[in-house]
C-alpha cells in the first residue's frame, strides 16, 4: 500500500477500512432509512401542521 | 541519508532524521532547523495562518517553532546548503533528551495521549499525523511535547489513520504488555526500534485471554485480518487504499477517542511497586541530617551555578528539585522505574526543569539504530556540568560489583566539571543492608582511600561530614 511511508500494519489498516466502509454505508443509506421510518412518523406530524397559522 | 553535502557544509543533518523523504532536521551553528518539502510547507502554512500552530505552542503541545524568513540571508544560506529544499523551520532546542526505553509507564501513556490529542485536533482541520512514533515526543518540565512537525500532512483519506499501526506498536502494545504481562519498557523498545509486530505481541496473550474485550479491537481482530490478508496475497478487494474513502473523519475520531479512554484507563490502573518509593521517609537519615545535607548542596549550587546537573540514583528527586530551583536543567536518572514514576507524578503537581529517566548505571542505554548513530547513548546524551552521586556509591560497589576506579571513571565520563559525591562507609546501616548474604569485600573502603582513587581524575574542592551519619559530602572539580 503506497500511502504511508512507514509500515501501516496491514491488520489494523484493513480493520479501519472495514469500519470506515460500514460507517460510510450507514451514512449513505441514512437518508433512505430516515425516509423509511419517516413514513410512519410523518403521518402524525402532517396531521398537526394545518393547525398552525 | 542520500545527501553527503551536509557533512561538509555548516548544515549538519541529525542522525535520527532520515526516514521520511519529505524533510529532515539539521543542526547549524548550534541552532536546530527543519527542511520541509512543498506539500508539508503548504499544510504548515495553512495551520500557521489559521492560528492552530500558535495555539498548540501556547499549550505546550508542540515544540516552539517559527519559519525562517523567505528573504533573509540565512534562508539563502540554508537553501544553498540543503539542495532540493526551499523552506525551513527553526525549532527551539530541547535542553535534554530521553527516549522511550528510558521513560516510566505514565510517561509513555502521556506521550500516547498527546499523540492522540494532536491527531484529533488536526483531523478537525483536515490534517493528519503521517507517523505516530514514540520518538516524536520528548519531555520538558514533566510535560510531553511533540517535536516532529514534518509529520503533519494532508492525508489522502480522512476515514482511516495510516499511522494507527505504528501507534499501536509504539504506544498501545508496550503499555498493554507492561500492564498485563509485566514487561519493562527497555525490553520492549531497545531491541525493536519500530516496536514489536502484532503477531509477536499476540504470543504474550494466548488462548482465551486474547478474546478479552480490551484486546479485541487492537490486537485480536487486526491479527486475524493481517493473517487473512497474508493468505490472500493482495488483500480483500474492498480494501481500496488508493481510493478517497468516504471523506468523513468521524469514524476515525470515534476510534481515537476510544483509544484515548483506553490509555487513560491503563494509566489510572498502573500501580507503583517499588522498594524505593517510600525511601525518603524510611531511610536512615534524621530530618536534621537531611536538612544539613540539603543546605551544603544548596550552598555549592549557589556558588558554582552549574547550567546542567545529572542526578544519578536520584530516587524520587529531592536533590534534583534542589538543583532545578538553583536554575539548572536537570536529568534525574534512577535504575528503578517505580522511583522515576513517582518523580514523574510529582512533576505533574510541581513542575520543574527535571527530565526523569530510567537508567541502569551498570548497563546504561546504548546508542541504537542506523549505524548505531540514530539514537545517542546515555553517556554522551546525559553529560552534564555537574554530577550528583548521593547515597549511590555503596550500590555501585555492592550491587554492581564496580571497583572504586571504575566508579571514578564512570563519573569522570559523565561530569563536565563538577562531581558531588556522598561517601558512604561500609559500617553504614544502608551499606550493611546491601551486604546481607554477601561476602564483605569492602572493609578496605575508607574515606582516605576513596579520596586517593578519585584524586587521579578530580581535585577535591571541599569535604563536609554529614552530622550524625558517618557519611561525608565530597565536592570535586574535574582535572
Overall SS class of chain A? mainly alpha
Which protein chains make the most extensive interface, counting residues with beta carbons within 8 Å of the other chain's beta carbons? A-B, 24 and 49 residues
Q: What's the gyration radius of chain A in Å?
A: 21 Å
Low-confidence stretches of chain A: 45-53
Helix content of chain A: over 70%
Distance between the termini of chain B: 39 Å
The whole-angstrom Rg of chain B is 25 Å
Task: Work out the oligomeric state of the chains in this entry.
Answer: heterodimer
Count of individual helical segments of chain B? 18
Overall mean pLDDT score of chain B? 92
Series of secondary-structure elements of chain A, N-terminal to C-terminal: H
- End-to-end C-alpha gap of chain A: 60 Å
Low-confidence stretches of chain B: 1-7
CATH class of the largest domain in chain B: Alpha Beta
Tell me the number of structural domains of chain B.
Answer: 3
- The fraction of residues in strands of chain A falls at under 5%
Q: What's the number of extended β-strand segments of chain B?
A: 16
Q: Biggest β-sheet of chain A: count, sense, barrel?
A: none
Shape of chain A: rod-shaped
Q: What coarse outline of chain B follows from CA principal-axis ratios?
A: globular
Q: Structural class, judged by helices and strands of chain B? A: alpha/beta
Amino acid at each position: 500500500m503506497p500511502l504511508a511511508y512507514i509500515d501501516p500494519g496491514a491488520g489494523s489498516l484493513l480493520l479501519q477500512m472495514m469500519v470506515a466502509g460500514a460507517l460510510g454505508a450507514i451514512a449513505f443509506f441514512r437518508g433512505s432509512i430516515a425516509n423509511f421510518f419517516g413514513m410512519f412518523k410523518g403521518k402524525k406530524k402532517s396531521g398537526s401542521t394545518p393547525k398552525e397559522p | 541519508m542520500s545527501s553527503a553535502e551536509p557533512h561538509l557544509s555548516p548544515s549538519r543533518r541529525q542522525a535520527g532524521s532520515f526516514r521520511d523523504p519529505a524533510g529532515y532536521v539539521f543542526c547549524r551553528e548550534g541552532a536546530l532547523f527543519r527542511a520541509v518539502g512543498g506539500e508539508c510547507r503548504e499544510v504548515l502554512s495553512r495551520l500557521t495562518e489559521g492560528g492552530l500552530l500558535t495555539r498548540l505552542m501556547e499549550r505546550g503541545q508542540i515544540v516552539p517553532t517559527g519559519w525562517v524568513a523567505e528573504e533573509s540571508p540565512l534562508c539563502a544560506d540554508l537553501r544553498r546548503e540543503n539542495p532540493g529544499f526551499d523552506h525551513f523551520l527553526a525549532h527551539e532546542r530541547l535542553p535534554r533528551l530521553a527516549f522511550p526505553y528510558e521513560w516510566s509507564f505514565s510517561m509513555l501513556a502521556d506521550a500516547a495521549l498527546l499523540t492522540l490529542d494532536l491527531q484529533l485536533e488536526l483531523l478537525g482541520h483536515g490534517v493528519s499525523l503521517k507517523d505516530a512514533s514514540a520518538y516524536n515526543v520528548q519531555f520538558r518540565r514533566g510535560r510531553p511535547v511533540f517535536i516532529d512537525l514534518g509529520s503533519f500532512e494532508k492525508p489522502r483519506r480522512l476515514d482511516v489513520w495510516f499511522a494507527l499501526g505504528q501507534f499501536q506498536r509504539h504506544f498501545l502494545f508496550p503499555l498493554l504488555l507492561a500492564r498485563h504481562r509485566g514487561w519493562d519498557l527497555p525490553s520492549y523498545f531497545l531491541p525493536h526500534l519500530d516496536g514489536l509486530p502484532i503477531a509477536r505481541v499476540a504470543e504474550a496473550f494466548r488462548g482465551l485471554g486474547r478474546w478479552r474485550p480490551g484486546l479485541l479491537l487492537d490486537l485480536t481482530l487486526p491479527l486475524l485480518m493481517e493473517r487473512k490478508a497474508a493468505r490472500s496475497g493482495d488483500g480483500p478487494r474492498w480494501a481500496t487504499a488508493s481510493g478517497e474513502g468516504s471523506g468523513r473523519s468521524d469514524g476515525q475520531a470515534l476510534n481515537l477517542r476510544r483509544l484515548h479512554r483506553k490509555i487513560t484507563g491503563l494509566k489510572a490502573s498502573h500501580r507503583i511497586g517499588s522498594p524505593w518509593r517510600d525511601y525518603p521517609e524510611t531511610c536512615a537519615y534524621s530530618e536534621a541530617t537531611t536538612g544539613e545535607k540539603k543546605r551544603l548542596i544548596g550552598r555549592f549550587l549557589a556558588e558554582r551555578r552549574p547550567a546542567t546537573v545529572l542526578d544519578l540514583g536520584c530516587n524520587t528527586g529531592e536533590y534534583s528539585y534542589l538543583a532545578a530551583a538553583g536554575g539548572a536543567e536537570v536529568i534525574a536518572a534512577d535504575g528503578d522505574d517505580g522511583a522515576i514514576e513517582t518523580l514523574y507524578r510529582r512533576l505533574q503537581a510541581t513542575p520543574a526543569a527535571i527530565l526523569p529517566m530510567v537508567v541502569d548505571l551498570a548497563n546504561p542505554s546504548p546508542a541504537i539504530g542506523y549505524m548505531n548513530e540514530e539514537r545517542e547513548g546515555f553517556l554522551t546524551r546525559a553529560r552534564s556540568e555537574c554530577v550528583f552521586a548521593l547515597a549511590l556509591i555503596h550500590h555501585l560497589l555492592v550491587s554492581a560489583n564496580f571497583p572504586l576506579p571504575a566508579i571514578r571513571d564512570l563519573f569522570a565520563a559523565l561530569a563536565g566539571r563538577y562531581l558531588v559525591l556522598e561517601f558512604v562507609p561500609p559500617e553504614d546501616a544502608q551499606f550493611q543492608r546491601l551486604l546481607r548474604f554477601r561476602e564483605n569485600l569492602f572493609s578496605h573502603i575508607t574515606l582516605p582511600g576513596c579520596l586517593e582513587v578519585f584524586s587521579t581524575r578530580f581535585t577535591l574542592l571541599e569535604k563536609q561530614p554529614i552530622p550524625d551519619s558517618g557519611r561525608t559530602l565530597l565536592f570535586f572539580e574535574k582535572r
